[in-house]
Specification:
This protein is mostly helical. The protein has helices at residues 2-10, 12-30, 38-49, 58-76. The longest helix is centred in the first third of the chain and has 19 residues, at 12-30. The protein starts with a helix and ends with a helix.
Length: 77
């Protein structure tokens, strides 16, 4: 929950990052690829690597979300 509040304060692109990474991490947990405790640990790494960017339209949001999904998958492996 703390990470979610930090993402809200950080700005819109960080919220997209949180959501996209969470989708991948929860799926990995459900499929027994990671432990529950790994979710916030990997999430922190992803969020710390993100630099806030301006998202002007839906294409920017979708591109960032896909980029973060791919990055998160690499962190799991």
């Amino acid at each position: 929950m703390k990470l979610a509040f930090e993402a809200i304060k950080a700005g819109h692109s960080t919220q997209v990052v949180l959501n996209a990474a969470d989708e991948v991490l929860v799926n990995a947990f459900i499929n027994k690829q990671i432990k529950f405790i790994d979710i916030p640990n990997i999430m922190k790494k992803i969020l710390n690597e993100h630099k806030q960017i301006k998202l002007d339209n839906i294409d920017d949001i979708l591109y960032l979300a896909q980029e973060i999904r791919e990055k998160t998958i690499k962190k799991i492996k």
